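Annotated sample (chain length 360).
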Amino acid sequence: MTPSPSSPSRRSLSGCLHGHFIGTYGLLALTVLLFLVFSLVLPDTFPTLDNVSSILSNQSIPAILALGATIPIASGKFDLSLGYALGLAHVMVLYLIVDEGWPWPLACLAVVLGGTLSGAANGVIVEFARIDSFIATLGTGSMMYAVTGWITGGGRIVPGPDGLPAAFTGLYDSRFLGLPLPAFYVLGLVTALWLLLERLPFGRYLYVIGSNPRAAEIIGIPTHRYCVYAFAGSGTVVGFAGVLLAAQQQIGNPSVGLEYLLPAFVGVLLGSTAIKPGRANALGTLVAVTVLAVGLAGIGQLGAQFWATPLFNGATLLVAVGLAGYSARRRLRADATTTGRPPENPSTATATADDGAGTP
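Output written by the structure step:
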């Protein structure tokens, strides 16, 4: 029996839809799968409200930092000063409160505004001095680390006998609706970034700049200005993360901050393979941070050694990127079968799709 002419097209469409589903929701499905597996292996400790609350609390600062890194990455830039800036911000908050006697709300506001200014300075150096973002932000980050050491003298900032104001530490320790308050900070930030990047012209401009800066200039987008805005937005988020880190640790430690850098970038890059595959996006970053948090919590309760954390981060990143590449190749093969054209390079297709999605 001769197959109908539409059969190949139907199979191609089915393959395309299947590949799109894997690329978009595969990471989310992996999160659910990991949670179910660890719940079966650790039924007494893992699927409990206390454990969920612990995960939400412990991963709130890495999640906020990853969301901050998402903004410049959307424009094709990388901010390697995030870890140094986080350390400086948390030290500055405690320095102003403990050593200078500032009211804690004023100290927090000053640090967040300082983060905005430092981020804008990064953007100016990258865009107007025309220094590669990797090199520029690595240099400014090293300078921030020097400032941190200068402020603390290489030691720790320890509050007096009365401790820190309860309202300040409550920024991290409080609960709302039975869950840690920082979890709601993360949800609020995800919502704000989703609106900013997906629903407003600012986000569309950043995606066009990240996809093709030359084309962005040709159509009239002020690329330098928007990249400075992206770095400033990232600095603002990092400043806020520093405030929460100070409320969490309650001691100013000049060496804290760098260990948050790799998880933040793993979250962003991993998140770019989900929800909106091929570009950094807030919802994808949230899903990526969640899968990492669930996985790390599970292997930690199984008694894993300290080196399991970087191993899990790296392995998860490789698996997710591999799945995204596989789904992209499936879509391209399906498109080629439907149109009769040879398959396109997956990386080129991703960039093209990004350009089209981001065009204002």
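Annotation: The CA atoms of residues 211 and 355 lie 6 Å apart.
Annotation: The longest helix spans residues 6-41.
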